[in-house]
Batch of 4 targets.
Target 1
Amino acid sequence: MRSLIVLPFLLLPLLAADRNDFRVLATSKTSTMEKEMNQAAEEGYVFAATMGGDTAAAGSEVVVVMTKGSAPGGKRSYKLLATSKTSTMQKEMDQLGAEGFDYKGQTVFSSTFGGREVVVIMEKEAGRAGGAIQYKLLATSKTSTMQRELKEMGDAGFALVGLTVARTALGGAELVSILRKQ
């Protein structure tokens, strides 16, 4: 009978290893979100998901969920890119890709100062050297155009990593696709 009493206590460390701790971050400023994500990363949290939109309490915000638990690897750092110009976003993503940052997620929301913007989250694992990661950002209002452009990028070896459909300040209602090639 003693082994029945002791056995659950022996299993607790195994069960705890499968648990995740979550941290929800929400703000209307992308600069604040980048700072809060990097603070959470210092505590061992990693990016899990993002979405932009109207929250009940604060209006238009970007919301990020970070998790700590079963994620492999070391500490990470984050960069948030926010712009209504696709050419600017393309250039910034390529620069961060050369520094070893990898695409993690994207959303569209109305920021305090920038209006309607596409927000892209980039992540770099500590100690990771820069690499030859290339990104392509495609933005169009027509699905037929997106089909053609995605096919061309796929033929060139790019993989689709993100898609948003939203109304941006610059282009109106747009499909915004992000592709990656290493």
Target 2
Amino acid sequence: MGFKKIVECVPNFSEGRDLDKIEKIVQAFRGKEGVKLLDYSSDADHNRSVVTVVGEPQALKNAVVEAIGKAIELIDMNGHDGQHPRMGAVDVVPFIPIKDIDIKECVELSKEVAKEIYEKFKMPSFLYEKSASTKERENLAKIRKGEYEGMSEKIQKAQWKPDFGTELHPTAGICAVGARAPLVAYNINLNTNNLDVADAIAKKIRHMGGGLRFCKAMGVELTDRNQVQVSMNLTDFTKTEVYQAFEMVKFEAKRYGVSIVGSEIVGLVPMMALVNTASYYLGLEDFKAEQILESRIME
């Protein structure tokens, strides 16, 4: 790509069904100097689209702001429904350092974006993760609790005053903007349509329930498939591995007579997350990333 500094951004938009709207939002990342669209995927049950884009800091910032503006124009949260928790048309906008840039610069970039989207579009925001203004705001789940429907009342409380803005956008709600380390969005599908089972497993495996340290999890209903899913974010895949999440879900599912029928990775995944999982299941001894052909070629 030839970028001097590389920042990744993974904005999540609250639209996973109207492909025309999704394309109009994603168009903001196409044909821009200093920006490369890597991936985007949509899920109708979640009613959500996840975009992965990289670029030089300022070029990426401009494209992200443009995409947010388009999403605010096209998405009306007053009629929105979906399985995934959400509080705005643009639900979360994380910046991740990739090459020759540190987390502090990503924090500053996130603050610039949060400020600009309020000035341009009157979209309020919370700063989260490494950008958070208070310890309580580091965790996205805590910020999002109450979702869009409860957010108007929530932000009246002193401890939940937005970092930018004072009132919800009337149709687009509010979003979270921040900086974080790379994560793996990993979902496991079960051979049951009982959401209570997926919820129970999610509560057991996530950090808040005494499970895996860097795992956030929830149960999701997949209506089209007549199945349920344990949907996870592995926030540090080097300490909570993909194979650990898989094995723990399988272990907990046994008590309900349920088995895994498939799993998926949403968006892009760091190569080492899959290498570590392959190493575990194949019992590889002393395997190093340097042994991967493509890894050596990319050097």
Target 3
Amino acid sequence: MVEDKEMMEAAEGTVLNIIKKRRSIRKYKDVGVEWDKVVQILEAGRFAPNAGNLQEWRFVVVTEKEIKRSIAEACLKQYWIETAPVIIVICAMTEKPEQFYGERGRKVYTLENCAMAAENMMLVATDLGLGSCVVGAFDEGMMINAVGILPRAKPILVLTVGYADEKVPIPPKTVLETLVFLQKYQNRIKNPNMVLWDWSLQMEKYVKEAKGAAESGASKLHEKIKHHAARLKEHIKKKMGKGEEES
């Protein structure tokens, strides 16, 4: 049980911890991002899962002030965006997904694929000590003009990257048992600690109960031993007294 708990803590210290640590950062220090870190972030996007392994995404890396201002304007005048040292515009080549999967491929799969790439990028950015934020609100025509996107491509998401100049608290999160159903929708889980992999809490409860029972049992045993010891002592005392009388 101890080894299992250590394994869970070790796992939380890696990917899960990075996921929990990630925040949406909208204020950045006026410090450039090392290019090798940018490349690692792009590599993370390249290795994201995608439908049919079509890899239809394209990543436009922007560091020039004038273009960053145009991107911020396109993002409904969210001027905080241009303060990020690096902006990555994630685009999708929509022809392949439509060719293989029809309208759903063009309208749904391209969005899903680019979203997974963006998530990969943000997690690696977090692991590298960088802040990031994904932006989906923008005027498509203005974004196309801002970074010169070809007609075959479509802008999907904007990702800002840089060294955070703010500390964002953990946002409220819905408890897991209200989000998860078992086998069918709305089929609630009676014991979420055991079913939802948070079984360490349940085991901790069992340990406490067992420890309490053990302590209670030990206390009763101790009292029983004391009682027998007292009786034995009294018996020996009587024996010794009887021996003295006979002598």
Target 4
Amino acid sequence: MNFIKQTLLILLLSQSSYASAESFTVAAAADLKYAMADVSAEFTKLYPDSKPDIVFGSSGKIYQQIANGAPYDIFFSADINFPRLLNDAGKTASIVRPYAIGRIVLWTKADLSGKLDMERLTANDIRHVAIANPKHAPYGMRAQEALEALGLWNKISPKLVFGENIAQAAQFVDSGAAEAGIIALSLMLNPQIKNKGRYVIIPDNLHKPLEQGYVVLKRAENNPEAKAFAAFVASEKGRAIFRAWGFVRPEESL
């Protein structure tokens, strides 16, 4: 009887360990909301037993969470410097890899007359302009840089409404809470909003590059599924998915 109990206990422990190995948590920048859904879908075709759990937020806030011990296995950041800081702090299990360069766009759903450009944001019929919070969101930082480069930051500061991340900034425009917004091209290409209103890509020479990077974290040091996911992102198929969502490959020129 004792032997049977011991055997059952070993089986239960091994099953528990296997189940744990199947799952892993990916913390990703909010601009990856749609691209990461496609990456996950293609990955699970190759590894049907793996279960990636993906959470989204602003890169700066995710960085702080990981620095404070949040249980994430892989970090995809809209600013490659955040994973580099974690690597310097000894919290990673892989090198930091670039995966894309992001683009920002000016988007409006409002029925605005005339040419859509950044100068248009100063007009009286635009009362609110949505951007991600530049204090912790890389897309918000780049939006501020572009506005400053054009001498518009001080002029439209009273109109700004800040999203916690770039996805929330897009929601402000989509809901009508803001007449215009500066958001990620990767979100703009979502079929649900792509044909709503007008958008223009903001010239990349107005801001620093949105060089994005990812890293496997210390928690996933012995998790083969998490490492397989990271490897898939670096594969040709993974890179093609990001390109389809408007990202520029790191080795390509803007």
